[in-house]
Write a structure and sequence with these properties.
Number of strands: 12
Number of helices: 11
Number of domains: 2
CATH topology of the largest domain: Uridine Diphospho-n-acetylenolpyruvylglucosamine Reductase, domain 3
Strand order of the largest sheet: 4-5-8-6-7
Shape: globular
Radius of gyration: 19 Å
Largest sheet: 5 strands, antiparallel
Strand content: 15-25%
Helix content: 25-40%
Order of helices and strands: EHEHEEEHHHHHEEHEEEEEHHH
CATH architecture of the largest domain: 2-Layer Sandwich
Length: about 260
C-alpha cells in the first residue's frame, strides 16, 4: 500500500485521479477499522497538510475533530451535542467531521443533525471544480473531496433522540428533526432517521404531514403510520427490525409532544 501526503488540495485531487483504489485519509478511525482494512485500498492520501481544520461561526473545516466541535461554542448547540454522542474521547480526538460524513454510515451521529440544520457541504470534484451541495443530497451521491460544512443562520429548534445498548455503542436508531413554529403550525420541518436503511434517510412524507397539519390536530398514530411506511430497517446483531420500528414510534411520540409543548 502506498502512502501520500499532498501539500494542497490540487495535489490531493491529482493523486486521487492517478492512484488506483486510492482513498482520502482524514482521522483514520474508519479506514483503520477491521471492516475497512479488508477492502485493501491501494493507496492512502493524507489530508493532514491541507489546512482544513478551521472552525468559525457556522463554518466547520472538514478536518476539524469531533472533540474540537464538541467544545467550540461558536457552533450551534445541536452540533456540539451530536459530537458528544460519540462518548469515547479517544475517538473524538481523532475522528473528523469530514471523515464522518464521507464514511456515509447509517449510524452516523453527525449526518442527521447536519441535514436537520440544512447544512451545505463545500467540496471539490476530481476535475478540480469547487461545488456546494446540501448534506442530504451529497450522501445520496457522494463525490469529490469535502473541504467544509456551512450551516445557515436559521434559529431552528432541533430534536435528537438516540437509542443504543451502551453509551459507547453505535445507535440502534437515531431520529433528528429540525423545525420552526409559526403560529399554530410547524414550519419547514426536516426529519432524518439513521439505522433504518443503508444510509441515513429523510422522512419526507412524515415531514409533509407535520407541515400541513395544525399542531393541535397532530395524530400520533397517523404520524407513526406515515413514518413506518418510509423506513426499511433490517435485523442485525444489535436489534431486530420490529424492535427498531418500536423505537421509531417512541421517538416520534416524543417529538410530537415536544412540538405541542413548545407551541
Amino acid at each position: 500500500m502506498n502512502y501520500f501526503k499532498p501539500k494542497d488540495i490540487q495535489e490531493a485531487l491529482d493523486l486521487k485521479s492517478s492512484q488506483k483504489k486510492s482513498v482520502f485519509l482524514a482521522g483514520g478511525t474508519n479506514l483503520n477499522s477491521i471492516q475497512y482494512i479488508s477492502n485493501n485500498p491501494g493507496a492512502l492520501i493524507s489530508l493532514e497538510n491541507l489546512n482544513l481544520a478551521s472552525i468559525r461561526k457556522n463554518y466547520i473545516g472538514s478536518m476539524a475533530t469531533l472533540e474540537e466541535i464538541r467544545i467550540n461554542k461558536l457552533l450551534p448547540a445541536s452540533i456540539r451535542t451530536a459530537a458528544a454522542h460519540i462518548v469515547n474521547r479517544n475517538i473524538r480526538n481523532i475522528a473528523t467531521i469530514g471523515g464522518n460524513i464521507a464514511s456515509n454510515k447509517s449510524s452516523s451521529d453527525m449526518i442527521g443533525v447536519l441535514i436537520a440544520l440544512d447544512a451545505v457541504l463545500e467540496y471539490y470534484t476530481l476535475k478540480k471544480e469547487k461545488k456546494n451541495a446540501p448534506v442530504s443530497a451529497w450522501i445520496q451521491k457522494p463525490a469529490g473531496l469535502i473541504t467544509a460544512i456551512k450551516i445557515p443562520e436559521q434559529g431552528k429548534i432541533i430534536y435528537q433522540r438516540r437509542f443504543s445498548r451502551t453509551k459507547n455503542d453505535i445507535p440502534l436508531l437515531k431520529l433528528t428533526a429540525g423545525y420552526k413554529i409559526t403560529g399554530d403550525r410547524v414550519n419547514k420541518i426536516i426529519i432524518a432517521a439513521g439505522c433504518v436503511a443503508p444510509k441515513i434517510i429523510t422522512l419526507d412524507k412524515t415531514s409533509e404531514y407535520l407541515n400541513r397539519t395544525g399542531i393541535k390536530d397532530i395524530s400520533i398514530k397517523k404520524l407513526q403510520s406515515i413514518a413506518q411506511s418510509e423506513i426499511f430497517p433490517v435485523r442485525d446483531q444489535r436489534a431486530g427490525a420490529v424492535y427498531k420500528r418500536g423505537l421509531l414510534n417512541a421517538s416520534l411520540e416524543e417529538l410530537a409532544a415536544n412540538i405541542q409543548n413548545e407551541n
